[in-house]
Amino acid sequence: MEHQKVLDEYRRQIKRLKQTIENLRKDVRKAWKWCEEAYEDALKELNAQMKDLEHALKKAKRMRFAAEQRRDQALSEVAGLRRENSELKDQLEKTEGQNKKLLAQLNRDYENSSIPSSQSRNRRKISNNRERTGRKPGAQPGHAHHGRKKQEATQTVHLPAPKIVAEDPDFKKTKKIITKQLVSIEMILHVTEYQADVYRNSKTGEKVHAAFPAGVVDDVNYDGSIKSLLFLLNTDCAVSIDKSQRFLSDLTGGKLKISRGMINKLCREFSSKTETERKKIFADLLSCPVLHTDCTNARVNGESAYVFVCASSDEEKVLYFAREKKGHEGVKGTVTEDFRGILVHDHEITFYRYGSAHQECLAHVERYLKDSMENESSLTWNRRMRELLQRMIHYRKEHTGEASLDAQTVAGFETEYQEILDKAKEEYKRNEPSPYYREGYNLYRRMQEYKTEHLLFLHDMRVPTTNNTAERCLRDYKRKQTFAMTFRSLESIEELCHSKGVLLEVRKNNPNIYTAVMEIFNRRYGA
What is the DSSP code string of 244-278? Predict the structure, then answer.
């Protein structure tokens, strides 16, 4: 019974448990159903959200694609703008460089380049540094009188007494006589006609006559007086052939009309009759310790040619040479080719192959430094170097005539020279030279490479600081070239060069160049 009670109790428990399990199962089924409903609702909601998200994603993708397209377009535009900006920047730099180069060329004159003052466009008024005294121009009280030189009278005219003297007996004649001269000139045409009787041999028919004097060959001949006048007008005074012809015709009242061909040939005749003088000048130039040399452009039938000049420091000896080309071919046959002394020139590289030593023309260097100062104002080396050159030249002039300069002072100049070049190197590293203006940088490199040739004048008192001697000699030829514009042949320039070199010699050795040239024209050929 107890066991039965236990079993019944267990059975009741089992029944309750089964009932509990059944209830739980019902709850589970309800929960599962709720979960399924919740899941379906969540899934529906999720699907709806997914659809919304997919829609939003598609919209975002479309927006992103559009944004990417806009970005790519913007990047493309930016790249284009950058390229355009870069091109504009390059173009601006190029334009600025070209403007700088053109301004540098436009502002160049005789003060900052090799352009002669006669061709300078920007001519400035030369300032007068003298202080105003308030006195009138002309003779000053207390100064010695410098009157015109009186000539020997060829005719004397005694003026009659004025009318007031004849009417008033109180006027008495004194011993004082006032003389005033009226000087005039006239051209007298002197013609000597030689006549020779002709004799005929009655047997042989041979005809003979007396020999005419030397130089009397043609029916009409002109002596050295006429040739000298025309030659000096055309060659030395740079008067045109037509004007020289007309001038002589006017002087003689139209009686003497020399052909242009004859006037043109006077240089050839003078050149052929002065070959001995040229050879002597050539030999004298070879023996000079210092030789100035330079060359300039010439024109032959519209094409380029060149004229070389070789001159001594005192300009006592000068020779000109006409050449078709520059360089070593142009130097061939000139004094420079065989010269063994010191050459002074304007940094013509060709000349460095000749002579034993060289001196650069510092006048040109000063001008180039001034050009650098005007176009590279941010640099300091150019201004310092120009001031140093001026101080060195001034110091050299103060000690003209001395055997040598103070060694310590010269060493100080050389040290400062090198310091300035080192400063130039440093400045050009910081400020790279423009491709459109490199003259300043090239000058710095040249002064560094040819330091000895720039400072030779400090070590040898015979060496001048400039090549102005050769410049002045070439200026004489350039006046003729400017007037003639072009020559017909190189031989014409050669004859002119031969004549000009001898003319300078004749002028220095003779008080009257006209008579000296006349004697040369009166020479016989080969004399």
Answer: HHHHHHHHTTT-----HHHHHTHHHHHHHHTHHHH
Q: Are strands 303-312 and 357-360 parallel, antiparallel or unpaired?
A: unpaired
CA 457 and chain centroid, separation: 23
CA–CA separation, 193 vs 4, rounded Å? 197
Helices (H), strands (E): how many in the chain? 17, 7
- 437, β-bridge pairs: 434
CA 519/CA 527 separation, integer angstroms: 12
Read off the tokens for 83: 């390229």
* pLDDT, tens only, 346-392: 988 999 999 999 999 999 999 899 988 888 888 999 999 999 999 99
CA distance 498 to 274: 8
What is residue 208's three-state secondary structure?
A: strand
Phi, psi dihedrals of residue 118, rounded to the nearest 5°: -70, -25
Using alpha carbons, list the distances in angstroms from residue 307 to 50, 233, 297: 98, 22, 6
Residue type, 518: M
DSSP state of 487: B
Question: Which of 446, 444, 447, 449 has its CA nearest to residue 425?
Answer: 444
AA letter at 290: V
Structure tokens at 350: 């060709």
Tokens 């020999």, residue? 211
Q: Is residue 186 classed as helix, strand or coil in its secondary structure? A: coil
Could you give the CA distance from residue 172 to residue 159 in angstroms, rounded to a whole number? 16
- State the DSSP string of 168-179: -TT----S----
pLDDT in tens, 4-48: 888 888 888 888 888 888 888 888 888 888 877 878 888 888 888
Q: Which two tokens stand for residue 261?
A: 């061909």
Alpha helix segments (H runs only) across 399-527:
407-430, 439-449, 451-454, 468-484, 490-509, 513-521
Parallel, antiparallel, or unpaired: how do β-strands 357-360 and 342-345 relate?
parallel
Instruction: Please give the radius of gyration of the chain, using alpha carbons only, rounded to the nearest integer.
Output: 51
Angle at 381 between CA 379 and CA 384, to 5 degrees: 125
Rounded Cα gap, residues 115 and 459, in angstroms = 30
Cβ-proximal residues to 123 (8 Å cutoff; 6+ apart), any chain: 109, 117
The half-sphere exposure of 151 on its side-chain side, counting CA atoms within 13 A, is: 9
Write a three-state SS string for 8-45.
HHHHHHHHHHHHHHHHHHHHHHHHHHHHHHHHHHHHHH
Spatial contact of 441 and 200, defined as CB atoms under 8 Å apart: no
498 exposure class (CB count in 10 Å sphere: 0-12, 13-18, 19+): buried
- pLDDT reported for residue 344: 94
The CA distances from residue 264 to 6, 151, 240, in Å, are 168, 36, 10
